[in-house]
Design goal:
By secondary structure, this protein is an alpha/beta fold. The chain contains eleven helices and 13 strands. About 35% of the residues lie in helices and about 20% in strands.
């Protein structure tokens, strides 16, 4: 292998040892039981993703922290101790393929698919499910911060190497961050510092619960429209998250996830936002979104200094992509 092949160099991130700089971003398997517990289908899915044995890290798909925040009837749970046995199996399964294992935890907010009252930043109608969404009160926010903390503690107990807070793709924390969905006039709405307050309080609660256990955040930086979260907002929020206690920031899509057209021709969708976050923070910044070419992944690590590069849909289509990328880059002279 070329001595310049930084993408496949071993290292550490947030104290976690990794065999290279590639990670599998969280991608929902929709494989849980009705109670959110792990199944053989779940393990088979991760067997497929990790069959190359050439991933540095796998961030396991979003697990709900509260049944009323469940995004899908088949989403996995980190909301109760009944899930611990399955969580431990999943962590062990990922480790057996040579990758570090991080668990993503989430609340779907206004887009939850559950039996019960929906919550979000403001009172509104969920048109998809024809249900009323109720604005979270400060007391409700505090309860969900505690639920995130309990879920993070379960990730630690189960043997994961870290936990990732989901604040992207239009789920609850993303709904509070984006000015498109958060029009509150209290301490949790308005300017960027207020819109980021809920996420900061979640980070603080998680950090207090897990102590020195690695904590990441998946940060939805790009809403796809000019009125959404700005690049300046991203820089400020990234620093807020660092100051609150996260060890790494995982950059992704914002309120609408990947539902935009203006960047689909790019080799990596969120580089401008990721660069802004990187410029205002001193912790590792990870990047995913639209990355399918080995040479692009290599450049993002070697020349732009991103800590880890995520390959999602490409990995689903071709689980052996990491092996093929390693071979291609070993023959590349720079």
């Amino acid at each position: 292998m070329s001595s310049q092949n930084k993408l496949f160099m071993a290292g550490t991130i947030a104290g976690i040892t990794i065999q290279n700089r590639l990670f599998a971003p969280p991608m929902a398997s929709r494989s849980a039981t009705e109670h959110g517990l792990l199944t053989q289908k779940t393990l088979n899915y991760y067997d497929l993703l990790t069959q190359s044995h050439e991933l540095g890290m796998v961030i396991a798909e979003h697990h709900f922290i509260d049944p009323l925040g469940r995004a899908d009837p088949h989403q996995l749970s980190a909301a109760c101790n009944d899930a611990l046995e399955g969580l431990a199996k999943l962590a062990q399964h990922i480790h057996q393929r040579g990758a570090a294992a991080v668990l993503q935890i989430n609340h779907a907010g206004r887009v939850a698919d559950c039996e019960g009252a929906l919550v979000g930043p403001i009172n509104q109608l969920n048109e998809r499910y024809h249900k009323q969404v109720h604005a979270l009160t400060p007391e409700g926010i505090a309860k969900l911060c505690a639920a995130f903390a309990h879920a993070a503690q379960r990730a630690k107990t189960a043997g994961f190497d870290g936990v990732e807070i989901h604040a992207a793709h239009g789920y609850l924390l993303s709904q509070f961050i984006s000015p498109l969905s958060n029009t509150r006039t209290d301490a949790y709405g308005g300017g960027v510092y207020n819109r980021g307050r809920f996420a900061v309080e979640v980070i603080q609660a998680v950090r207090a619960a897990v102590q020195d256990f690695p904590v990441f955040i998946r940060f939805g930086t790009y809403d796809g429209v000019p009125e959404g979260t700005s690049i300046a907002d991203c820089a400020i929020l990234g620093r807020m998250f660092q100051d609150a206690g996260v060890d790494a920031i995982d950059i992704s899509g914002g309120l609408y996830g990947y539902a935009f057209d203006d960047r689909k021709q790019l080799d990596a969708y969120f580089v401008p936002e990721a660069q802004a976050v990187k410029a205002y923070t001193t912790i590792p910044v990870m990047l995913a979104g639209g990355i399918t070419k080995p040479e692009v992944a290599q450049r993002l690590v070697k020349q732009q200094g991103f800590a880890l590069i995520g390959v999602a849909r490409q990995l689903l289509c071709n689980p052996l992509w990491p092996l093929q990328a390693k071979e291609i880059l070993s023959k590349t002279k720079e």
